[in-house]
Write a structure and sequence with these properties.
Elements: H1 3-10, E1 15-22, E2 27-30, H2 39-46, H3 50-54, E3 58-59, E4 62-70, E5 78-83, E6 91-96, E7 100-106, H4 110-126
Antiparallel strand pairs: 1-2, 1-7, 3-4, 4-5, 5-6, 6-7
């Protein structure tokens, strides 16, 4: 499967960074700004959200604040985060398929980011990824 093609579909107007990662933390495809995301960070983003509310996760070097976990909502499938003010208050949307994490960061509202994430996560789940 060409992951770069799927990465290109994530890059809507308001998306500044995008990546597709294996649940083991491997990078399947990523823009330059997400190449420093660690395997441990991916495992945290794929895990339970309860701990993320009290101690927000990091995405690369950026500290995030947990806003809402809609990963179980079949109309959203997204974990919504926001970076700290020091990192520009960017919106972060994370989706989880069977084998991967889809991650986008951008300047738009969370729902602008969640649409491409939702579409890709739905597709990946449908084809067993």
């Amino acid at each position: 499967m060409s992951w770069d093609l799927h990465l290109d579909r994530l890059k809507v107007e308001t998306v500044t960074e995008a990546g597709i990662f294996g649940l083991d933390g491997s990078i399947w495809a990523s823009t330059e700004g997400l190449k420093n995301v660690t395997g441990e960070q991916i495992k945290i983003l794929a895990g339970e959200s309860a701990a993320m509310y009290s101690c927000g996760p990091k995405v690369g070097a950026m500290k995030c604040v947990m806003l809402k976990d809609d990963r179980e909502d079949l109309n959203s499938l997204c974990l919504h985060l926001k970076t700290s003010a020091a990192d520009g208050n960017l919106a972060v949307c994370v989706g989880k398929s069977i084998q991967a994490i889809v991650l986008v960061i951008g300047t738009g509202a969370g729902n602008q980011l969640s649409i491409p994430v939702y579409q890709l996560v739905s597709y990946l789940r449908g084809v067993g990824y």
